[in-house]
Every structure is written in structure tokens, then in C-alpha cells.
Amino acid sequence: MFERLLSGLLAPSPARLPEPDARLALAALMVRLARSDGSYAEAEIAQIDRVLAHLHGLSAFAATALRREAEVLEAEAPDTVRFTRALKAATAHEDRARLLQALWSVALSDGARDAEEDRLLRLVANLLGLTDVDSALARQRAAKG
Fold this sequence. Notes:
By secondary structure, the chain is mainly α. The protein has 8 helices and no strands. Helix 2 (about 20-35) packs antiparallel against helix 5 (about 80-90), helix 2 packs parallel to helix 6 (about 95-110) and helix 3 packs across helix 4.
């Protein structure tokens, strides 16, 4: 499964991901964000599981399993640019702000804003076709919980 997803992401023009792969791609992007500051805190892991359960209607067990798959994929995945482009292709524009809000909720879950997380979120927002204003609004919504 990972091989097929990775080969698609490495293609010159990544193909639109089917729904299960889009879920995994988003989960892996959350893991990449959580790891970007050099610390993969329990609060971030728990938030990833909560977000995945909420966004996809998964049980706690299924959300944890998806996150664990995503941890493996993230470690093997190509650069964030291709990864996010593939996610953009799989997600309707109106849903991308919700994805960014979910990512911000992971970044904020450990109680500290980190420059690396901020940098990665600026890149992801841009690659998702969202503005700085969209990102700021997503961050504010995530901070309100």
C-alpha cells in the first residue's frame, strides 16, 4: 500500500488520491508537522488521533491505527511540497481550510508555537491554495478548540 502511494507521490504529476489514501496523506502530514519541531509530544499524538477520529468518523482504535500507518509513511515520504500537492488534488477547495485548521490544532496542542511548525504551516497553506488570512483564521478557530 505504501509503495503504491509513494510511487504516486513521486510521479511528476501526482495522481488524485483515492479517499483512503487521502486520509493517510493527511494523517502523515499531521505527523510531519508534529515532528517538525524535533519533539513528537504525547499531546500532539493524542490530538492527531482526536482529529482523525472526528474528521473521518473513526473509532479511537481506528484513528490510532491510521496514525501509526501515517508515522511509517511520513518517515518514508517525499518532500512536503509533493505530499501537500497530492493532498490538494484529493481535497475540494472548500474543505482545505478545515484541513488547515486540523493541522493548526496539532501544532498548538503541545501549548507552544514553534518557528519550524509555523514555517511548515505557511508552506502547507500556500501549497493548499490558501492565503495567510485563511491560515490565521484557521489558527484562531483551532485555538478556540
